[in-house]
Amino acid sequence: MDFVASYKMTPVNRAKTHVIRRGTNPLPSPAPSAMALHTVSGIKLPPFSLPPPHRQLGANPTGLYATSAFPRRRCGAVAAVVRCARRTGKRRYPSEKKRLDRRHKEQLRQTAPEEGGVAREGGFWRLSKLAVPASDDPGKDFLGVSPPLLQAIAKALKFPVASMLPEEAFSVVRKSFDARKILKEPQFVYTVDVDAKKLLDMEPRTWDFIARLEPKIGIVEYMSDEKVATDLISMLNVHSDDEHGIRDTVNNGSISPTRMKPRVAIVGSGPSGLFSALVLAELGAEVTLLERGQPVEQRGRDIGALAVRRILQSESNFCFGEGGAGTWSDGKLVTRIGKNTDGVQAVMKTLVHFGGPPNILIDGRPHLGTDKLVPLLRNFRHHLRELGVAIRFNTRVDDLMVEGGQVKGVVVSDSNVQPGSVDQKLSFDAVVLAVGHSARDTYSMLLRHNVDITPKNFSVGLRIEHPQELINNIQYSELAAEVHKGRGRIPVADYKIVKSIGEGDVKNDIEQVDQNRSCYSFCMCPGGQVVLTSTNPSELCVNGMSFSRRASKWANSALVVTVSSHDFKPFQSHGSLAGVEFQREYERRAAMMGGGNFVVPAQCVTDFISNKLSVTTLPPSSYRLGVRPSKLHELFPRYITEALQQSIMMIDKEMPGFISSEALLHGVETRTSSPLQISRHKETYESTSLQGLYPIGEGAGYAGGIVSAAVDGMYCGFALAKQLSLFSGDTEAIFGKAQKQTGSVKY
């Protein structure tokens, strides 16, 4: 049958005909007869014919099908570079996002009970992203269920009368403050757990609404049991004989009388060292904790002498001592490894057990402050000693005792004397290396034993300081009056900034090649002060710290730029320590700019951007040892300086007023994270090049902050206990899979 004769004017065909009539052919017609249209009853249809032979063969002798949209590449021409979006967690291809959404929905379908089912009478529902306007909320220090929050819960449940909902059926899991400019007004954002059984017992009329509740990823999620994390101590004691085998089930958690306890040395009393010591001691190991610095009581006096009399104790300062560098800082507890994971929750609950405020379990951006960390560490120390841990302060590890490629012990000396003068050898079955990123002499010692160390990226820059009132006004506008130096309803304003300096924006002086770099805020301390973190009088570097209330009149933050091994080439003669020498070079330059005596070089932001030094009288600074007007724009290589300048101008567009005559830059910030990584096995945490050595924490390049370092130490404690036959369970069954860290946290 002829196709034209059988063509019917259906609605679909009528639409197709309309397209044919109005459509145009983008290619020029080779001949009028080839494009002739058949006409039947006024309907024009294209003929069904094959393309010309030369098109089938891929040839184009006449240039008929060449268009200006696809020009032929000439000899010697440079091809255009097409860059694809990087596949990260926040930017995914649409097909990948759809696939993830389908997988998440399937997981929800499998875990949540069927709609209207009897199982919905029990269990817990987690409601997230419940927004309460800041004007209606009781404030940042109220962690209960308020009437405005009940209104948000009723809206999520689609329950008509919020006042009928019993407060006892709800518990606040997370509370954060959101003051982004895209919102109509600032708001507190809650995550709340709903006890379905208690809610139905107290208000049966909510059954229809619970029965129709639909799970949504990140909004409404069902849990058969309440997810209640416990502290590490309770976990190790209460579940000593459970199915996870937390203790040696053969001996009911004790060591056989005929078998000696394994002896473990832990070098460093920072978060990773303390938590690994806690796990190993609770599981029955004989632990010795070696700390080159002083306990927090004496360390506080040494820091006071530095701030008042400019006396720097090389082994007891802002970097070295009980608790590590984080003790005298802002005490941030934010982390990128998952704040709701069991491992992180165990660490947070343990901090509360030792005296941390309970609000860190709920606060969306928790922090402790130095005044809370000092008594917490004192309680931690007392508990370790009750477990039998031998804690030796003022003891520096100068060398390792190695036999046949295996660590047999350590060589220690008094921190007040030169290495090698009065040595003592201590034998151990294993050595956990939990030093901080400022233990540069330890890195050199490891290289003498051919320990596998690789340089890694880190960041350097300057610390910027503004009046806190200015930051409050920029972030909160009229709501800034509610801050009241940390005692008001609204939290003290902070900021978190990440800027990408695109390719071609910044020139690298080393290779004259373009390179993408990130500039970001690091360790932002609202209501804080700038402090000295040098460990050598000839080197100068700074950091920020604050107390729990954040009541200071200044706000400071590091603005740092990423650097990589390409930038270390002038120091490549130092091998794996090239990044360390890169840090030291600019710390020495800063010390010379400041003129010595721990005076910090400083420059107004307006001058720094203009590459000049016109202001000789600087605005007030929180740094107590003095500042000196300096040309900080000449301190770093040009590619770092230009990246900082461009980032500051980009920040000012988002936060008008950030560039201010009151804003002051301090130099330098170089110790954002470890400049190297000590290679280790993923499962056992043991060094890949030296048996019996277990590098962990921030100094080893596997953490970046208090919480991630503590989690790393905790996992290492269990891994080592398993090798020492003190632990027979599965750590992942208890805490989940350990998160990989590279040692850099962007606050």
TrEMBL record:
Residues 90-115 are annotated as: Disordered. This is FAD-binding domain-containing protein. Residues 263-300 form the FAD-binding domain. GO terms for molecular function: FAD binding. Residues 93-108 have a biased composition (Basic and acidic residues). Residues 457-672 form the FAD-dependent protein C-terminal domain. SUPFAM superfamilies: FAD/NAD(P)-binding domain. GO terms for biological process: photosynthesis. It comes from Hordeum vulgare subsp. vulgare (Domesticated barley). The gene is LOC123442520. It comes from the Eukaryota. Pfam families: FAD-depend_C (PF21688), FAD_binding_3 (PF01494).
